[in-house]
Amino acid sequence: MKDARTIRLEIEERLRRAREAAGNSPWLVGYDVNAIQEYVTANSRPVAMYGASQLIKSFDAEQLRAPGTIFAGGGRGLLMLNHADAKECVETLPGKYAERTVGGVLATAKVPWDESKSGASLRWLRLALENAKDAASRPTDVAPRGKRDQCERCRVFRAVERRHVADEETEFICARCAATTATGRDEHNNRQSLVELSEDGKIAAISADGNNLGELFDSLDTLAATAAVSEAVREVFRHAHAAALARSGDKRHVAPITGGDDIRVFIAPSAVADYVYTLAREVERGAETLGDLDGILRADQRRRFASLGVGVGVVVAGDRTSASWLMERAHKLERSAKSLCRPEKNGGRGRVRSALDFAVLTTDEAFSEGNAAAAREAGDPRPLALDEATWLPFLARVRALREVPSAQRAVLAESRNLGAEEFANLFLYQVARSRKWQAWYESIGVRWSNRDEVLKNRPDGATVEFLRVLGGAR
Amino acid sequence: MTRFKLLLKCRGSVLVGGHGAVPTGLHGSHATDGDGRPVLPATAIRGALRETLEALLRGADLHACDAGTGREPGVSHEDAAGRACALDEGRPCVACRLFGGGREGLAERARMFSGLVLGDGRLHDTAARWMLRPGVSIARRERSARDRLLFIRRTPATGARFLAEGRLLDPSLRREFEAAVRATTHLGAGRSRGLARVDMELEWDTSPETVETPALTGDSIRVRVTLQTPAIFGSVLARENLRDTRHEVPGSALRGAVGFALARVTEDPQHDPDFKALLDEGGARFGFLYPIDAKGKTREGVPSPLPITAAACKFEGRTHGIVDTLLDRIVTAHLTKTDEVLAITDASARTRRCPKCDGPLRGIAGYRRCEEGVAVRAATRASIEREAQSVREGALFTEVRVEPGTTFEGTIRGISEKNRDVLAKALTLPLSVGRSLGAGRGQVSVEVSEPPRGASLVQRGEAFDQSLRAHLERARMSTARVGRLVAISLLSPWVPMGGGDEWEDLAAWFPGGTCFLRARRFIREGAWDQLVGTMRAWQAVAAGAVYVIELPEGTSWREHIATLEQIEREGIGAQRHQGYGEVCVFDRAFVPTGTRGAP
User: Which of A363, A414, A469 to probe the B interface (max B CBs under 10 A)?
Assistant: First the structure.
């Protein structure tokens, strides 16, 4: 990971070049990609998702080489230009982006830069960009005339070319899918399907996002601080993602978007536990290490930055499930996880920096507005804090439960069919006769002979469900 | 059209997999309903009946295609893939006429895809629900149980009875249906293990259906439908093996439900003048029906999607209330100097934070009168290849259904005097909306009432101006545009007529006007034309979009009242007969509570 001094020097150099380019009438220009996740996951093939990410990445990289660019990454950018160039940039950049990404939509905005009121200028740009995102140009739409000419991959656009896939298999695809697939093809990313990542027919989709970054950016009132924090956040997340993959044994994965503080990963379910915990630890550690970014941040800004954490949503489902559908649900769970990371949450035990929510989607799963969390039973502990005090004991409970035979775990399902007393009778009987249950209770520090404690501490929904994530449940 | 009840009595137990989540520790489970009770899926009952009927027909030397594939058994798949059945002298075979086939459009002169509507079999007068059936896999060589191969399945309790209700839409198929019922003895999996034995009893219900005919008076009505069975409203973007559902009833689905219901009781629907007057493109406009929850049922107002400008607490969502940001966005669009930014930051502090917990706000999607969200359930289904007794290639898919009990509300507009009687009659008929109607999906109960009468356009305009003026004054900005800005929000998706900038369509209504601000998303919309079996798709602006039009200097929206009332009354853009393009001028959602003026 880059250190704070390197980040500061890079930003100062970019600022110097930008000021030179802007001359006496500096304007700030911002850009932001619209619906980036839909764009990237429209085609479920890993190679196409990777290709779509690469197209966005190459667009950012091209902007970063321009003299006026202060920051560009993750589909967002900040430039300082003179008025004429700013005007041209705002007008032409969406077209260039659409051309590069075959129809992607980009929002741009410009505001005058006033060095003496830098905070106000930056705020103005944020507000203007917010309006611009909803007013961005109409997307290129080459709708299929019917089912027969619908792209067989994304199902959104009209198919224009037939491509060879494997052996004698071909597919009829649209221009965008052709471009993303061609871009994504290289020796490391030639997977055809998410199925190649799965275990026992299951795949995990992970959506992660930095916590409270909106408030952090709102507090930044200089260009240097805004650019440096953007760069630092990107660096922290890039490093944390790489460390998390390494910790989880470098399982096969597809990480379509890793720009800024957004992480999206498809990975084998057995890697989830190590990945999410390491990601959270490394994000927290990385932000603490970078400190005040070598003097760029004030004390209050440094405190906010150093408390950076991450909200993580994980969905595990069948490996034939649509990638975008999976990621939508993971994103909703990520929001649920983030809701725990507030000062007043966590029962007064202090602020949670990072948290996780997860769900295993099976057939007949009920959810509301796509939110699996909405259908849970009362007392379910999710979302869970990703800290030592909560996560590690939880994981230990789950792993110990693996040793209980599945036929014994099946008894837990009876709680929905039997009355409370009848279920208690059945469950206590099973615990009394099963050495494995007794061992499980002993491992979590509960006396299995104590009736009330056994019932109170029986495995909850989160524990049973995470066992399905790890595998070994069936 | 005759109603019936089909009683299914299990001899032993049954096992229909795939429809229910397998609880932890079990290795297989029979299908469950939303309350966790065993259920016999309509598709399984229909499949068993169809298989029997096909055998009976072939035994009588009659043509019967193989499970709706349009080919006789034994014909290779490649030769006949996707063929619509025409085995009965050019007509679909009897099995296809009764149970439907793989046909995308209606057959010539046909009025329905399937002559039978049959719902799920619900557990009937049986106290016991479930039983666990342990089994052991035996190693042949050792003649003993294999290690770790104890498996447990959950099936309905022995002797469980299920009741399925349905309608025979084509009375000419009654004899064949009764024969299939009498001859069917097995349903579901596990036949070699003693499962799947069932006895079926059919009881025709000849009692008259008494549904009061609604008295329609004006040119528009409010319609409230409540799902009696799960429903699937097909989304335009069908993904690989996922059939997702929309969370609203598109106008085309409501129009289709009325059309199919009327067609069944009309002599010659294609040439019936009343039928055509109601359902042709120039006929009534069938609006989108949007979900309302228990709280929403007691409230007035439009049920449509929230404006795109709506925001709610980032952490607690709409339980902390909804804040609209349009006025803030208008103020932002007024900015000309950096100095003004500080003033608007102070002025809009109240609407930039959650009013309840002071947390940050974020954009929120959803429906105005549905706080709890739409409850849906995903089920995985498979089409079984009879010969191989395994899942048909590419026919394993997950389908998402809206749960029964969900209520939707909307309007039907543009009802001419001569259409009233025929529409009133249609609304008394059994209506089903969405897909898979033959499997009993999408059956609804209907309530009809007067459309809501809210504040007048002038009242809403004045309230908007008042709030906008206050907002601008708080930000110490010019109020010169107040009275010249018109806010138009989409209550349903809008299909612009032209292919360019959609603003040009709107501009035609307001000569000299400019687009001051717009907040919108584009979506793919479309509908199946079931008569011909083709899908029509188009790009639309999503419901909830907001346009703020700036009228020329020296004018006021008051000079455009007739135009504004016309676009509210008639809508804008294409496909208005399917409910597209409904708009609201000076939506009350933009005005902070307390300053909305008269209700």
Answer: A363
